[in-house]
Amino acid sequence: MQAGCVCGARAIAAPQTDEIVALPRVGEAVCGLTCAILGLGSFFIPWLIVPALLGAYASVRAYRRARREPAHFGGLRLAQVGVVLSSLVLPGLLVYGGYRAERWYADEQERARAASRARMLELSLAIQSYQKQQGALPSPQLQELRTAGLAPNLVTDAWGKKLRYQPTGALAATNPLTTPLLTQYRIVSAGADGEFGTADDLVLRDGVFVPAAPDAEK
Question: Among 128, 140, 190, which residue's Cα sits nearest to residue 162?
């Protein structure tokens, strides 16, 4: 209690002044933490990587300012939490992104294999159609099919590699009068690696897909 004026009133607190008290700013720390929390959803919604990056930048900036000028910038704890969340989200996204990219590549290769099998089956049907018409298999160059218009666009697989057609007997007669006339053949795609004679080859023998035998087609 302080002594009052002559009227008998006593002062119970310090007299008020017109001085403006500046409070530390915490907006950037709050913004960084909020964005970092939103960034956690980027594992499920890809575009949320944007607030994740903003959160990392804002949190680091707020942390540095709060350490350097604590009288003007507050929210040190909030900034620290934002930095920790960002440090977890961003590496996690890189790992998750790598996993998704690997899955996408695997799916693309599987689609390419399916498309190649479809082309090989179409080519097999064209070969069988030619055989019924002419009584003999076409030559390995498939020139007879092209001439007959049976396989104008079926000579490459989905990877752009030329399909390899091979009669599997001693004779694939271009002269239908030649005997004996053999009916066995196989169609081979080099697969994703583009190399014949490896384990990822696609092999169609007499209209039926069979396991590839490495080194057999080189």
Answer: 190
pLDDT mean over 165-181: 57
Please report the sign of the dihedral spanned by the C-alpha atoms of residue 110, residue 114, residue 119, residue 120: positive
The verdict on pTM exceeding 0.85 is no
Nearest 5°: the CA angle 117, 206, 179 is: 140
Q: List, in sequence order, every residue forming a beta bridge with 185; answer none if it has no partner.
A: 167
Tokens at 147, concatenated: 């001439």
What is the spatial distance between Cα 41 and Cα 48, in angstroms, rounded to a whole number? Answer: 6
> Model confidence over 30-59: pLDDT tens digits?
888 888 888 777 777 777 778 878 888 888
- Cα separation, 181 vs 170, in Å, equals 10
Provide CB contacts within 8 A for 37, sequence distance 6+: 55, 85
Rounded CA gap, 130 and 137, in Å?
7
Alpha-carbon separation of residue 140 from 52, 143, 178, 193 (angstroms):
58, 8, 16, 23
Rounded to 5 degrees, φ, ψ at 116 are -65, -40
SS3 of 120, please? Answer: helix
- Residue tagged 């008020």 (tokens): 16
Q: Enumerate long-range contacts of 16-21, CB under 8 Å, 24 or more apart.
A: none
Distance CA 135, CA 137 (A): 7
